[in-house]
Amino acid sequence: MVYQAKPFDPLTVKATRKDRVAYFYDADVGSFSYGSSHPMKPHRIRMTHSLIMNYGLYKKMEIYRAKPATKQEMCQFHSDEYIDFLSRVTPDNLEMFQKESVKFNVGDDCPVFDGLYEYCSISGGGSMEGAARLNRGKCDVAINYAGGLHHAKKSEASGFCYLNDIVLGIIELLRYHPRVLYIDIDVHHGDGVEEAFYTTDRVMTCSFHKYGEFFPGTGELRDTGVSKGRYYSVNVPLRDGIDDATYKSVFEPVIGKIMEWYQPSAVVLQCGGDSLSGDRLGCFNLSMRGHANCVNYMKSFGVPMLVVGGGGYTMRNVSRTWAFETGLLNNVILDENLPYNDYYEYYGPDYQLDVRPSNMFNVNTPEYLDKVLSGIFANLENTKFAPSVQVNDVPRDREDLGDVEEDTAAAKDTRGGSQYARDVVIERDDEF
Length: 432
Prior knowledge:
The protein has one domain (18-386): Histone deacetylase domain (Arginase, Chain A). It has helices spanning 43-54, 71-74, 80-88, 98-103, 116-135, 165-174, 191-196, 244-262, 288-299, 315-329, 366-380, 419-423; strands at residues 21-24, 62-64, 141-144, 180-184, 203-210, 233-238, 266-270, 305-308. The radius of gyration is 21 Å and the shape is globular. It has an eight-stranded parallel sheet, with helices on both faces. Helix 1 (43-54) links the parallel strand 1 and strand 2 (62-64). It is built from twelve helices and eight strands. By secondary structure, it is an alpha/beta fold.
């Protein structure tokens, strides 16, 4: 196999097939703060939402506020004592939990802040309810940008992540789907998700990330899983400065081969925005369209898909890219000129949608990438046969309050009908 990067044509990123999209957003999520000097800003989700609304994308999809995840739901993956700790610790009583803070890795990178448990439950609830709607065929794509926190472990916070909403979402999908594919385009390795499913063939994890003296330090090519899960963890270790054309020439062959051989019936795509050019903590050189090409490529397979957020520490770039990708998922190419929105001043001086690449040097040589791809394809040769699936009774669905029309006065306004009833009315393509 000879590696070849074709020039990246931004015009190839265009809408493909029409899907029913369910979008999950909780207005409270932007109010949480890790601290003024911390790079992780939940406010970016509020900025993204403002762009999505002002571009008129709400007319194209169903918008939901998910029911926050309960302790019982969180404990489907996390340990009881860890979730209990998250629910009780606050900045005011932190001194009482010094021993637990060390045990659960809560401190500098993962500080205790006001509303920490609520923040986790919003993130987890969106991914679980999105998965539940996909299970029941209520949508083709579910979006939860408050999710994507891929570093959290069973009993440990890590890399700004406390609750692994992705694992909870995949557990929900596994109740209906024999095989689930997880794809991670964050600049950091998706170690928490890989670790959770390292011994099973029912979930294949595929992470494209910077490797070599970079957090979390895991995700080399030969980490492929153990026991039944051997060869079902795929790692694509990349180097600094990877650009759109190079990324596309690695992403599409790897994912194309996985889709062909593994044949998942559901996909979870983590869209971490720290792989974009100019990120505060990242070292890749992807433009908005290069990043969005991954979303568009996955959409083209027509497999039920849960799309979640992740990293991204230059807020204006993350919000622009996630808004553009939301447009693609709704078959809309957004206008280059940003509409006026609540955070318009963040996007100066040009007030344009695009996130452009820089002149950063690409350290990923053709020889290196050829070696990586050859190793991945050799490992995938062992996964040609579909994995065995244990036959179980499907447990009761996660309660979905979105399907029940609320009669409360707060949900109604003078136009008549409930807020939910109005939200599910989607603008037809021939409306005007």
